[in-house]
Amino acid sequence: MSRQIIKLIKQTLTYGLGNILTRFITFLLLPLFTNLLTPEEYGLATLIFVFLGFMNIIYHYGIDSAFLRSFGEAKDKDSKRRLFSTAIWLSLGTGFTFSLLIYTFSGSISAILLKDTQYVNIFRLAAGVLLFDSAAHVPFALLRMKEKAITFIIIKLINVVTTLGLNIYLIAIVKTGISGIFLSAFIASVITVIIVYSVTISSLRFNFSLKLVKDYLKFGLPFVPAGLASIMMETIDRYIIEHLKGTATVGLYSAGYKLGIFMLLITTAFNYAWQPFFLRIGDTKEAKPVFARVFTYYILGTLFVWITLSAFIHEIVRFKLF
To answer: Which domain holds residue 143?
Structure first.
């Protein structure tokens, strides 16, 4: 049992370190945005990102969780390749369809969400970001199931470093405004897809099983309402603030909100390692005692970090990076 827990801890620390690095690099964008964008511009960008958050749930529709479950139960390589291939072709097909709809109706979406049609091209870029992000979701899930945490983190780091560099170039040098944020995200997503497929393409075949599609949808679709409810609780306040106070207030609020990422880092790192872990040993005799001990350690660890952060939050906020 201790060997299993140690393995989980190693995976969590690997994902955790990578997640901290990626979040920290992303955090470096905050002074760039607050110094070079007006509060109104940053507020508009935030509202578009809220839209992306909602659409991500629809694009993924729980297919990664369904794939992880099925892959964990598969016994032979051919079955695993069939599961992976079907999940890939399904996600590519639905992703292309959804993005085509967003691209076609980008003017209407811009008018409804931002009360202005001048942001049509940004929503078209957003459609591309959603397409390529959804295309990479299943390959990343495969890396997690194969416990290739280092490869997973390296690709994620390439994504955020590319995003950071392009944002600095497009916003600080070229002065593109908020369109540079989404152009950077689009280019970084394309590069990420190319890399992640290059390391997982050996598992891809021209196989497509309707039976597996039904299984994926049966398991994955119930995640959609839960995911939408979760993202609504996390982000709907931006649209409420925009309605009551305007986009400038949304920009100021969102900049401050980013300070609350620290506990998210731990939870995300643990979750990346936990899902493949419990799917792999869930049917074994030692599952129950291992699960009990894991969550005891998890609660104690996160409680300690939370108390420590709460005690020193004022010093953290006042720390000057630049």
So the answer is: 37-259
The answer as to whether 61 is a domain residue is yes
Place of tokens 């599952």: 287
DSSP state of 178: T
* Structure letter (DSSP) for residue 169: I
* Residue 314 maps to a domain: no
Who's near 61: CB < 8 A, 6+ residues apart? Answer: 94, 217, 220, 221, 223, 224
Which residue type sits at 289? P
- Show Cβ contacts of residue 65 under 8 Å, excluding neighbours closer than 6 positions: 219, 220, 223, 275
Written as six digits, the tokens of 121 are 């091209």
Average pLDDT per consecutive 10 residues, the chain (322 residues; last block may be shorter): 63 65 70 82 90 93 88 83 93 96 95 90 96 94 85 89 93 91 95 95 88 92 90 86 86 72 74 72 77 86 84 63 44
Question: Can you say whether the dihedral through the CA atoms of 129, 135, 137, 143 is positive or negative?
Answer: negative
Any domain includes 130: yes
Strand ranges, E, within the chain = none
- As for how many domains the chain has, the answer is 1
Q: Which DSSP symbol is given to 37?
A: S
Token pair 């598969």 is found at: 74
